[in-house]
Known about the structure:
Blueprint: H1 4-11, E1 17-18, E2 26-27, E3 36-41, H2 45-56, E4 61-65, H3 72-77, H4 79-96, H5 99-102, H6 114-138, E5 142-145, E6 147-152, E7 155-159, E8 165-176, E9 180-182, E10 195-196, H7 198-201, E11 210-214, H8 218-229, E12 233-237, H9 250-262, E13 266-268, E14 271-279, E15 282-289, E16 295-300, E17 302-305, E18 309-311, H10 318-321, E19 344-346, H11 357-371, E20 385-387, E21 392-397, H12 400-406, E22 410-416, H13 421-425, E23 432-438, E24 444-451, H14 454-466, H15 471-475, H16 485-497
Helix pairs in contact: 2-11, 4-6, 4-8
Amino acid sequence: xxxxxxxxxxxxxxxxxxxxxxxxxxxxxxxxxxxxxxxxxxxxxxxxxxxxxxxxxxxxxxxxxxxxxxxxxxxxxxxxxxxxxxxxxxxxxxxxxxxxxxxxxxxxxxxxxxxxxxxxxxxxxxxxxxxxxxxxxxxxxxxxxxxxxxxxxxxxxxxxxxxxxxxxxxxxxxxxxxxxxxxxxxxxxxxxxxxxxxxxxxxxxxxxxxxxxxxxxxxxxxxxxxxxxxxxxxxxxxxxxxxxxxxxxxxxxxxxxxxxxxxxxxxxxxxxxxxxxxxxxxxxxxxxxxxxxxxxxxxxxxxxxxxxxxxxxxxxxxxxxxxxxxxxxxxxxxxxxxxxxxxxxxxxxxxxxxxxxxxxxxxxxxxxxxxxxxxxxxxxxxxxxxxxxxxxxxxxxxxxxxxxxxxxxxxxxxxxxxxxxxxxxxxxxxxxxxxxxxxxxxxxxxxxxxxxxxxxxxxxxxxxxxxxxxxxxxxxxxxxxxxxxxxxxxxxxxxxxxxxxxxx
Length: 504
C-alpha cells in the first residue's frame, strides 16, 4: 500500500452485489472477515477516543460518522459550545452587573455583541472538531462519512443522505458509540427558533425577554444561566422537588438553588408542564403543581425543553442481528462492554450509566484494551459530575441520601469558601466543600463542591477515591497556599478529626 488512498480502497469499496443478509445492502464479493479489526460507529468522545486507542494498540480501525464534522453531540452541540457561552456570558455579566466596577475596573457602557459571542463559540467548536480529524490522521484511523448500519455480525454498511449504501466494511469487531439524542416532550413540537432544545438554545439570534426552561437538571440550569446573564428573565420548571438532576446531594442542591436564585433565575419545583402553544408571538406554557394540582399559564418568548436525552440506537440494524434493547433503548452489555454478540461492543450514552462524555471516553479506552486481551475495569462510583455554572457544582461518590439508605455510618466535614483565603481574594466566596467519610475506616466515600473551580477540584477527590484514600490521607497532603483547593483539604480534615483549622 503506497498511499492512504490505496489503504482506504482496500478497506472499503463500492459494489452492486446484493447481500444475502439484507437484500437492499451492497457488499463486496471478495470481502473477508479480517479486512479491518474494528469499526467504530460514532465519533463522539467515546467513539473517537476508542478508535484512537484501538489504533494505538495495533488494530486496523475505521470510524464512521453521520455528521459532516467529528466530535458528536459533545463537541458540536453540547459540552463545548455550551462551555464557551457559559464562560463568555460570565465575563459579560461581570462587566454589565457591576462586578468589574466594584473591583476598580471601569468599563463605561457595556454592550452585548451576540453575533460575535456566537462566533467565538463556533471558533472553539471548529478548532476542536478539526483537531479530531488531525488526530485520526496521525493515529492512522480511517474516517468514513455517513450513517453506520450493522448489516451482518462482521459487517457495517455506510449509508448516504438518501439512505443508499455507499460503502461496506468487513470487520472482526464493532463498537457502537452512537451516543444519545434530545428526548422529545410529548405534545410540544421543537422548531429550534422559539421552542428549542439544547441545540437551538446554543444558537439563538437574540436575547429573549423571557425564557422558560422545562427541566432544572444540569443542561437546563447551565443554559438558563447563560441567557439569564445575557439579560433574559429565566424561569425553570422542574417536576422533581430539587434542582441539579439525579445524583446530587440534597443539601448541596438547596445551596445551589439559593445561589442561582440570587443570580436571578426563578425556579418552580414540583411542577409539571402540561401544554405549550404559540399565541400572538409568544409561547403560552401551561403548568400544574404536582402537590396541590394548581394550574397556571406562563408566558415566554422562548421555551427551552431540557427533559433529558435518550440513547441513539434505533437505526443501527440491531434488531436484525438479534440484539435486543432494554426498556430505555439501551444496548445491554457485560463487564467487557460486549453485547449478546461477543464481537459487537457498545459504550457511552447508548448503554447503562450516566450520560457523561468522560464516562464514554473511559469506556472506549477500556473496551479497546479488552479486545486485545487486556484487563477491563471501571468504577462508576468514581465518575465525577459537574454543573458548569458560576460558581460550579461538582460531586463524586456517594451523597448523604445514598449512605443513609444503605445503612452506612459516616462522618461529615464541611468548609465554606468564605473562609478560604484565595476565594476571599478573588471575591468568589459562594459555596462550600462537603466531605463524607466512613465512620469506621475514615475512607473517603463522597465529595461535593459548590465553588470556584469545583470542576477542576473534584478530580482530586476522584483520584483519592480510586486509590481508596482516607480523609486523613488527604488532610495530611500539603496543598499550595493560597489556593481554593485548600478548602478541599480543610473539609477532609474536618471529616477526619472533627475540626478544620481556618473555620470556627
